[in-house]
């Protein structure tokens, strides 16, 4: 399939999605929002993973972003859209600073410290109630765009497209070479002129910024932040599962994973209202056992074989 | 193969600074103990009890990590399932949970076999995070299954002996939780002896240090993995019975113990069993100390994670210098 | 003057001393052989020179400037290239991409130029099938790739760490030819080898390491007849 | 290549999306759209109680000559899922009314959606006054569960009443142990704000529900404080361990009071439970004084052969029944008319009180405002206050551990 056709189809898909509000109801739209929000989180997690660093801290930067957005609006009266960018900035900067220490670590140790970071953010946020509203959190007078369905959807769609583009940049720029080398063999990487630490800090900050951005958007869309809600472990575990299910280290893996698992859990609960989450668990286990390359990996293999 | 090298370097690491750390911990621990003994005796007593609860649950996880080189994120869920089965035995057959621990050993050994053969076996070669995700999925399945069967309603058996207490001078304290101390020490010694003197144990040690090497000298690596995993699951399942004598149980109760065990194992270092006990003691005592100061109990978690972070950063420095 | 020289270079790991007071120099355009029994500190020396390890004591000078505290990626950019004792392909990258890494980050080229340079270098090394992934390569090809990955950054000095290990006689001959070609283009080369034939045919000078110390230095014929060397080394070899 | 594969997938996915959009068939029955956390015992039993209510209504010939249909969607205790559930009920299922509710955290995420559709909503969950603030001016919104500050007020009222009726019961010095989450801290704030004439010390603890479970340091502090009333605010998981550890260190204050949202099913069976006071909207024993409650109890037991263990079960039943009364009164589903009707509806509920709507601090349509003061006696929760529903005399003081 040549480039022209491919880009044409992608364009068509994009148009279809952009036009979704005109032929789909509010429920599919909000479902799409949820899916795309988790999609971008999954992408950001995967982007860092391409350097071999496994992060359990998604919820941490997601929550920080959420608080940054809501608080900057409540106290600073800043325009909601701007607060979302501010959220990205905040999370990115924090990652940059923390990264200077944390990125000394590797593997299991890095993973667990990111996990701890998320937890520490939560505890700190809950212990400065005057600013954050403490355990009860803070609410916005109204959700972004006054809850206007179309606009909200387009905002999320824009973020999703942004995320996909960012991920593709990671895949095509020299970052790709740097991160892949680091993941494969750090010794070779640094002996081949790659400033390992620099590139890890870059990747960590950018992915954290993305997570902060999504957190900010989420908080603006649902109009509130709370420690239990904004730092919920779901925002770490579900994206993780989606990326794995769809296939890691490629842009379309997390995307497809998010769509499939997102729809699955939503449809499942219609047929198994009580305890459909068990099926969700089974899907993850099965996916890892039978699709180590993820859905996309599997399919691209078959495509390869055919052509 | 990358896994193998990882593990070997991990062991070197622990060996290299084990003694240094041992001493440091011993000093810290003794210091705390002395101060506490006259200042707040109950912090000492209850801190030790709490520590050993952590330790007895974390030990099997450390064993799995040390030998198979994987972190079992379904660890706490196995514990939780054990607790529920003990509860069920108690309700159905009036079996005392402490006795239920014995049949549970068998039940969970078999469950361990099944789990290993059907899932773990197939991801041993895969990347670390694949293993983490698989076990995370397993955990989800277990907890949701329990939720379906017993609902999220917290349950707690009535046992008079769990609130047994003794008094020294003016200060009265619970005596029952000393069974956690017993259990932790028993499990630790048991495992150490097992690793040292049984064929499987020796094989496990060898495999843990270098699977390929072990295979070359004719050790059946797969079988060793199978045994070690099953034994660990059996242990943690039985621990569930001890756990639920004292705590309410509900489907999500295991999760936080997975995390705590995970952190303890990371602190103690790859496959370092006795390190678990030391780290637990520091953590448990520190936590109880904070809890004992009025108005600051909220910060107990920070202490926990700060300690984790600190120790891990130190460890990474250690590693870089070599 | 020397292109690269070390001054009483010492490296300790915990208790044991891998290098003690090693003072050697690489003269421009020469091929210097570094030999010694197993655990003599050959690879450690390369790693310290390449910046993978920082020395416990002593200094390293490159083109007259002190690079003792330079990180490895800096030294690579300055012109110190190396291959590895064990083959270390980047297995998520294709053959050409593996080589590109050197050009991208060693010389800061754009992807387009890096790719061009890499394919030129591959041609020079006699590598074909540039889009294969690393699992499909023979040992010789991987060795060549590693050399190419270093060369594409236009280094001034190149360390070949047991690059001949695991190659058959013909392949060794081919490699020797290659290294000669490199020297003829003015590259300074450090060769760590167990295969004595290579040292003999290739090197202008040899440094013998034993227990981390310089045991002897000079043309191969000289050192190979040095009784200390024979006792320490040649006895152990065949 | 990958892209090629991706296109195929994306097409498939798109098809899936469009399919899941599928237009819902026009509905004959009156549709009640409920959102509850079905994985949790509260949502589980509330949803069952709703089913029971709907069944009874349909057996009695439905409403406005139309059958009633109940559609329950799980919110999985996640705000975004709770919001999506409402969207689905509104657009796919074309629900006429929204009911249900449990966690405040989830509800906050739902409020924007509720505002968007402005459907008549009768909510039985979310006690946090943050939610109330967010719902200012929403006159289509009916909130049956008491707000946090109302609960506090009713406790004060209750204890004052008890103190007047039984002067020997002292309650000057309070010690509140509250779980460190939103639920606990809110309660403590409420307590401090309302019980001004009383001394209230407080300390937070980590609930067993989130991995805590060691209350001994806390209980020791309480013991040192020598309060007249010791109250803990936590979850069911904390109930028995707290009693056990209190016994262990010999802590037996004159009034031992606990207020979890739901007690463990077999808490009463424990000898340690005897004499423990509790807060709650509903207790099984109310069936002795309220025929409606008796009916509800028997019917639920018969239908699902399990006992209602949380008051959300009763609230679920009330949720549907109250709404049904309103619809009957209004004779139509037209929002304005229905709101008006609900405003005037009075429903004698299984929790004892007659449910009527009145304004609260911020919103116009608040239902219940009172909690009850209960006490565990001989294995059952007895109502101590309000006195009109009292099923037993208060036991005082809390018997010392060695005197049992």
Commentary on this structure:
The complex is a heterotetramer of chains A (307), B (322), C (238) and D (404). Chain A has 16 helices and two strands. The mean pLDDT of chain A is 90. In chain A, helix 3 crosses helix 14, helix 8 packs across helix 9 and helix 13 crosses helix 14. Chain A is mainly alpha-helical and 307 residues long. In chain A, 79% of the residues lie in helices and 1% in strands. In chain A, strands 1-2 form a two-stranded antiparallel sheet. Chain A starts with a helix and ends with a helix. Chain B is globular, with a radius of gyration of 20 Å. Chain B contains twelve helices and two strands; from the N terminus they run αααααββααααααα. In chain B, 77% of the residues lie in helices and 2% in strands. With 322 residues, chain B is mostly helical. Chain B has a two-stranded antiparallel ribbon. The N terminus of chain B is likely disordered. In chain B, strand 1 and strand 2 form a beta hairpin. In chain C, strand 10 and strand 11 form a beta hairpin. The N and C termini of chain C lie far apart (37 Å). Helices cover 39% and strands 24% of the residues of chain C. With 238 residues, chain C is an alpha/beta fold. In chain C, the strands form two sheets. A six-stranded mixed beta sheet of chain C has the order 7-8-9-4-10-11, sandwiched between helices. The mean pLDDT of chain C is 91. Chain D is of the alpha/beta class and 404 residues long. Chain D is built from twelve helices and 14 strands. A seven-stranded mixed beta sheet of chain D has the order 7-6-8-9-10-13-14, sandwiched between helices. In chain D, strands 2-1-3-4-5 form a five-stranded parallel beta sheet, with helices on both faces. Chain D has a two-stranded antiparallel ribbon with strand order 11-12. In chain D, helix 6 crosses helix 7. The longest helix of chain D is centred in the first third of the chain and has 20 residues. About 2% of the residues of chain D have low confidence. The chains are: A mainly alpha (307), B mainly alpha (322), C alpha/beta (238), D alpha/beta (404). Chains in contact: A-B, A-C, A-D, B-D. At the A-D interface, helix 1, helix 3, helix 11, helix 12 and helix 14 of A face helix 1, strand 2, helix 3, helix 4 and helix 5 of D.
